[in-house]
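Dear U.,

For the methods section draft, I wanted the exact inputs and outputs in one place so we can describe them consistently. I've listed the two proteins in the order they'll appear in the manuscript figures. Please don't edit the token lines directly; just add comments below if something needs changing.

First protein:
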Amino acid sequence: MEKGKRLSPETSWLKNKSTIDIMIAKFIPQSWKEQWCKRMDFLYNYKPMRIKEVTPEDWNVRKLVWAFKDGKASDWCAEVVAKRLMKVYGERVKQLVFACIPASSAIKNEQRYMQFSQKVCELTGCINAYEAITVSGQRLAIHESREGKNLRNTQVINFDNSFFAGKEVVVFDDVITKGRSYAKFACAIEALGASVVGGIFLGRTI
């Protein structure tokens, strides 16, 4: 199942999209595009439930991602992620900060990332950013789409500014689709004075 490829979410997203989607893409911030040009590795191809024709291997990947999101596959996923990080970055990995894009609530974030982050950093020597990124609660925000506007609860993310200043960071997320969450998070980290070297993801939505 292991893929180990680099990807460009912007390119893959535009490949099969309509003219209107491509027009919208022209207004994507340049800072996001710069993040997408950095190294981005994924371990597995992830097929969401909307895709009906899947193989037993595809189902295994789905179950792995779901288990990870529920905090039930932390150690195993940490081992495969650590292995990839060491292969990609070599000895340099010990100078990198490992930062996970937070889950949607403080409870889910702890369940998904606390043990996982600790294990990855134990295996690689990376600097663990788990305690430097917290989800403090939720607030209502207006979400806009082509269908209109609606209110959604969004998490409030807090950063330890001094922790990130001057650091090199590799960003982790469980699944990457269009890459927007990764780009926004990476830009937020760099606004604190850090340098994001790239991202690593358990799965890539295809």
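Second protein (the one for the lower panel):
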Amino acid sequence: MDMRQMRSLGPKLKKFLKRFDDCFPRKDTRAHLPVYVSGQLSDIPEKSVEPIAINAGVPPRTLQEFLSRHKWDEDRARDRVRQTVRDEHAGPRSIGIIDETGDVKQGDKTPGVQRQWCGAARKKENCIVTVHLAYARDGFHALLDGELYLSESWSDDRDRPVAARHRDGSTRCSNEMGFATSPGSSGGSRTATRGRWSGRSSTCGSTPSAATACRVSRCT
């Protein structure tokens, strides 16, 4: 979206984001959400924190702290998105989409990083892999959930996730997370969704466990 479109969307976006007010305990924390969401919807080529902040005229560190240090209930926000999709976008021509995304990373401290197949690079790379659940119906689509894939080398060494910390000391991944094949991660998704069909990539749909985990029923 360009700036003209963003300005025309402003009142509707503000009204929509108010649905998430109870996900943020502090008013000043809540105020950063429209900035970040507007940046993701904008037509700037890079959607990382720094370009979004510069485009909005706010200090990049402010937005960085919003995402990494400020407390907000991300599980409640995820569930609120799911409820909105269920209540306003259910229908007979709906589909659930399960797919994975690989991001190239350097070093060995990022949780889940190792040399493995990276779809973005189309080859084996030092990267992390996340599995995502999306929903689509006619011209509407939404991302509902995502989960980090931890290999056996990460999940079996319980000291390793604890050692992977932010600079502020908070852990980057939970010690409760365990190993699952990448397709199996979608079965562990915390989001319940209903669709008439499911679509999976060749990787995410290649195991019987993935088909078993994905229970699809007709939307009502």
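Candidate sentences for the figure legend, describing the second protein: The chain has a mean pLDDT of 77. The beta strands are 94-104, 114-118, 123-137, 140-148, 197-200.

Thanks,
Y.
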